[in-house]
Amino acid sequence: MQWMSRLPRRAWLLIGYAAAAAALFSAPLYLNDFRLNLLAKCLAFAIVALGLDLLWGYTGILSLGHGVFFGLGAYAMAMHLKLAAGGSRIPDFMGWMGLTKLPWFWEPFKSFAFAAAMGLILPSALALLLGFFTFRNRIRGVYFTILTQALVIITVTLFVGQQAYTGGTNGLTGYTKLFGYSLTSGTAKTLAYLATAAALLAAFAVCRYLVNSRFGKVLRAIRDGENRTRFLGYDPAYYQMAVFAVSAGLAGLAGMLFVLHVGIISPTMMAIVPSIELVLLVAIGGRGTLIGAVIGAILLTQAKSQLSASYPDFWLFLLGALFIIVTVFMPGGIVGLIRQARQAILRRRSENEITLDSIVPKSNGVV
Amino acid sequence: MKSPSILSCQKVTVSFDGFKAVQEMSLELASGELRFLIGPNGAGKTTMLDAICGKVKPAGGVVEFRGLKGTVDVTRRKEHEIAQLGIGRKFQTPSIFSGLTVEENLEIAMAQNRGVWATLRAAMTKADRERVDAELELIGLEDKKRLRAGLLSHGEKQWLEIGMMLLQEPEILLLDEPVAGMTDKETDKTGELLREIVRKRTVVVVEHDMEFVRNFASKVTVMHEGKLLKEGSMDEVQRDDRVAEVYLGRKRRDYDAVGSTA
User: Which chain A residues contact residue B164 at CB under 8 A?
Assistant: First the structure.
């Protein structure tokens, strides 16, 4: 182990990141189409998990409504794909519902740039609005969480009810083209995967910057003592609104990418159960660490794909059991377990030094 | 106004569901003075501090703060605005941010622009570094600057919080029982810190420990049942019959004019 301590922690971190990035970008070389598609989905979920971790792990705000933000991003992208598939005709489901003309708000989604911008802006704006009315009125904790659940129910009901404009329960599907190229070809899938990997790395970099900045320290301060930050002169409401909007924006980004890989979005995918699953990704990976969110998202999505294919009923039970096990026995998630193990090893290795260390500073402190 | 005061509380009344914790309490603070606020349990001392720093909104009265940014009635402001105006508050239980390191606690407490955009772009400048390091030396926690603040001992947490208050650079500092639960040695060190603090700003200290108060030759305000009972030097206060009565429970005399009902 001597050689390991010669390099500073920072260098090890960089090497780790570089290796992870290399593994992600070279995945198309060693994974078949099915595996690559699954990994792409995992990475998209990792982006939502990062955003949720900023909100929950770092600021202490639990949102059980991120399915909505994810869904809004997904619908924005799906609307563009649907229009691209139909050419000059209006989308099929509108015809069935008796519409003859494309609704005005669908019109601008013919532009990819507009759709992509909306995929980020709509979720963030909705989060800002909700945050404005809740955080400024000091609604927090479980009350806020319940409100996010209400948001899910309202949104799902709205999307199901407005079938002529949203495709109702069936959602939006049947896409064929993006930028004029077929979506089903191997190259298109590889490119979509690479775009997702790049988006994840970018999201990770942004989150890392945020949590290491003074802004991030204030977020953690709000988590530890919201009122105390007020008496330091910070207005927690604006910090909470900002982080909620960023988190929702990341969920929107993930939703857009998800649609590319899965080819469908429907109201079920933004309902309550998927919203809770998103939180579980963070809980299992380890909240309060960015890498934990990513690990949790990748592992759980893989597991879900394996298990729900062979035992669809069993998956829900497992999910519930996992939730209980994680909250009771491993509050720090997988990353927390790794940390504990490492500390235990370190402690055993240098027992003598530690006991000395813990006595000396105490007597020093009082002088 | 008789003298130029920095804080003037006039007839402040705070009521909780009809119970008047503070009744028509008036308090004048001269710039740069150290004032002790004493009184038996439930006298409304802490509530008075709460009213000044915005934690509770008084039902009546005015709290006028004549700081560098002009004269403001702080009863109409939110907590973070009052803090930005220059009134700092230290609570009785140490309330540091346990998930942040000692250093990080000081970093965010430092006087600075506290908007979201500002903190997003804020970098630790050399001047910032020196401010934090100087503070760490003053409170004696240099060795523990990278330690999570939640792991500090009770006394250390109190000092860290005092350090945070100093970096916040308030014009008025409100301290609630800074030596409660401390060992004698820790109390002495806190006393030294307090002398350091008082040199540059106006301080109000709520305190139960009479020995501690006696160490400082300064003005004392005694509260009882939400009202002002006596104001003066420690000696004057100790000679006062009414003060002795509320503190020692001495038998009430006939000529007692306090008008208290308890």
Answer: 232
